[in-house]
Design goal:
The chain has about 450 residues and is mainly α. The protein has one domain: Amino acid/polyamine transporter I, CATH 1.20.1740. Helices cover about 75% and strands about 0% of the residues. Helix 6 runs antiparallel to helix 13. The radius of gyration is 21 Å and the shape is globular. Bound molecules: tryptophan.
Length: about 450
C-alpha cells in the first residue's frame, strides 16, 4: 500500500487542498492588518494600482516559479536547490529563505498574539464606552506590557506548531480547508456592513481613486514589498508547498487561483475598513495600530458592533494561523529532510528556536526599548528587512534560477505536466521570468533604497 511506503513524502490530497493551503498561506495579516495601513500611509488609490500591477507582472510568475522548483525537486526550500543545481551556490536562496522564515515568524507571531488578545477583548466587551484616546491607551499599554503579549504569542505559536506537527495532509490541508471558507464568509459579511454605513463613499474614493502625485520611489518599493509579503513569495514557502503538490495538478491554474484569492481578500479588507475609517472621521494614516485602535472605536459606535468586532478579530486569528503554519513548515521541512530529524521533533525544535527571537521581538515593543537601530525597534527592523529586502531579493534569485539556470524544456515539462496540458502562455511566462521580472525587481529595489536619487524621504 502506498501509504505505508516510508519513502513516499507526505503531500496534499486534492486540488482544493492545494488551493486552501497555499491561499491560506497567502491570505493573512498581510492582507487584513498590513495592507490597509500601508495603503493608508502611501496615499490610497495610486498605491493600489502599482500594487496590482506588481501582483500580475511579478507576483504570478514568481509564485509559479516557486511551484516549479518545489514540485520538480520534491524537496524543502534548501534541498530543492541542492538537488536541482548540485555543486553550485544556488542553495543560498534556501539559506536566506530559512533566515527570512525566522524573521517573519518572529514579528508575525507578535501581531498574531495581539489578534488573539483582541478576540478575547471583543468577547468580554472590553471596548465598551471607550473613546479613541482610551482605546489608544488600551492598545499601547497592552502592546508594551511585556508579559501578556508574550503569553498570547506563545499560545499562538503553540497552535501553529500543533497543526504543523500533524503533518501536511492531516494537519495543514485539513485545517486550512476548514478555516478558509469561514474566513471568506466573514470578510464578505464585514464588507456588506462597511459599505452600508452612512458616509462610506469617501473611503471607497480613497481606496480606488488614484492620485499619481503620490507615487515616489519609496511608495513603489513598499508596493513591491507588500506584493511579495502578501503572496507569501520570495522565501521558499511556496517551494515547500509546491513540493507537496501531486503530478496531476495544473501549477499555473493553482498559481492564478491563489493570487486571485489573495488579491480579492486584500481589496475586500480595504473595502471593509476604509469606508468605516472615513465614516467615523478617522485619519487613514494610523499605521500598524489601524485595525487595533481605529476599528474597535468604529465597532463601539456601530449598530451590531459587538458581533462585528467578534467576527473581525476571529477573521484575523484565522488568517494569521493559516499563514504562520506555512512559514513554520519551511523550517520544519528543512530540518526534517536535510538534518534527518523526525517531523515531530523537528516541529518542536523549530517552534522553540523561533520563539526565542520572537520573544525579543515582542519585548522590543515595550519592556526592552534598548533593542533598536535608529528609531526602528527589533520588530520594525525584522519587518522591514524581511518584507522589503529579503523577499524581493529571494524572488529575484528564484526567477533567475528558473529562467536562466534551469533548462527551458525542464520548466515547460513541469508546467505542462509532461506535455499533458496545453499551456498557451508558456513563452510569455519564460520571457517574463528571464527579463521583465528580474529587471523590474532590481529597479524598484535599487530605487527604493535610494540609488537613483529618487528617494523622497
Ligand atoms: N502572506 C502572508 C500574509 O499576507 C504572510 C506569509 C505567510 C508570508 N507565509 C509567507 C510572507 C512566506 C512571506 C513569505 O500575511
Amino acid at each position: 500500500m502506498a501509504q505505508l511506503n516510508p519513502n513516499l513524502r507526505d503531500g496534499f490530497g486534492s486540488k482544493l487542498g492545494v488551493i486552501a493551503a497555499a491561499a491560506g498561506s497567502a491570505v493573512g495579516l498581510g492582507n487584513i492588518w498590513r495592507f490597509p495601513y500601508v495603503v493608508g500611509q502611501n496615499g490610497g488609490g495610486a498605491f493600489l494600482l502599482v500594487y496590482l500591477l506588481f501582483i500580475l507582472v511579478i507576483g504570478v510568475p514568481v509564485m509559479l516559479s516557486e511551484f516549479v522548483v518545489g514540485r520538480r525537486s520534491q524537496r524543502n526550500a534548501l534541498g530543492a536547490f541542492k538537488k536541482l543545481a548540485p555543486g553550485t551556490y544556488w542553495h543560498v536562496i534556501g539559506i536566506m529563505g530559512i533566515g527570512a522564515a525566522f524573521f517573519i515568524l518572529s514579528f508575525y507571531t507578535t501581531v498574531s498574539g495581539w489578534t488573539l488578545e483582541y478576540l478575547v477583548f471583543s468577547l468580554s466587551s472590553s471596548f465598551e464606552g471607550k473613546d479613541k484616546e482610551e482605546l489608544n491607551v488600551m492598545f499601547e499599554q497592552f502592546r508594551m506590557s511585556g508579559l501578556k503579549p508574550l503569553i498570547y504569542q506563545m499560545i499562538f505559536m503553540f497552535f501553529t506548531a500543533f497543526i504543523v506537527f500533524k503533518g501536511v495532509k492531516n494537519g495543514i490541508e485539513k485545517y486550512t480547508k476548514l478555516l478558509m471558507p469561514a474566513l471568506l464568509l466573514i470578510i464578505v459579511v464585514l464588507c456588506v456592513r462597511a459599505v452600508t454605513l452612512p458616509g462610506a463613499g469617501q473611503g471607497l474614493v480613497f481606496l480606488f481613486k488614484p492620485d499619481f502625485m503620490k507615487i515616489t520611489g519609496d511608495v513603489v518599493l513598499q508596493a513591491l514589498g507588500q506584493a511579495f509579503f502578501s503572496l507569501s513569495i520570495g522565501m521558499g514557502a511556496l517551494i515547500t508547498y509546491g513540493s507537496y503538490i501531486n503530478s496531476e495538478n495544473n501549477l499555473s491554474n493553482s498559481a492564478f487561483s491563489v493570487t486571485l484569492t489573495d488579491t480579492l481578500v486584500a481589496v475586500l479588507a480595504g473595502v471593509a475598513i476604509f469606508p468605516a475609517v472615513f465614516a467615523f472621521g478617522i485619519q487613514p494614516e494610523a499605521g500598524p495600530g489601524l485595525v487595533f485602535i481605529t476599528l474597535p472605536m468604529i465597532f463601539e459606535q456601530m449598530a451590531g458592533g459587538y458581533f462585528f468586532s467578534l467576527i473581525f478579530f476571529l477573521l484575523l486569528v484565522i488568517a494569521a494561523l493559516t499563514s504562520t503554519i506555512s512559514v513554520l513548515e519551511v523550517v520544519v521541512a528543512y530540518v526534517s529532510e536535510e538534518l534527518g530529524m523526525n517531523r515531530k521533533k523537528a516541529t518542536v525544535l523549530s517552534a522553540i528556536s523561533i520563539s526565542v527571537l520572537g520573544i525579543f521581538c515582542t519585548l522590543s515593543q515595550g519592556p526592552m526599548p534598548e533593542i533598536h537601530i535608529g528609531n526602528r525597534n527589533l520588530f520594525d527592523i525584522l519587518e522591514f528587512v524581511s518584507a522589503n529586502i529579503m523577499l524581493p531579493l529571494g524572488g529575484l534569485l528564484i526567477v533567475l534560477f528558473v529562467g536562466w539556470y534551469m533548462k527551458k524544456d525542464e520548466v515547460f515539462d513541469e508546467i505542462s505536466n509532461k506535455n499533458k496540458l496545453k499551456v498557451r502562455f508558456k513563452w510569455l511566462y519564460l520571457y517574463i521570468i528571464k527579463f521583465v521580472a528580474p529587471v523590474a525587481i532590481a529597479l524598484v529595489f535599487l530605487n527604493g533604497l535610494g540609488f537613483f536619487g529618487a528617494f523622497s524621504n
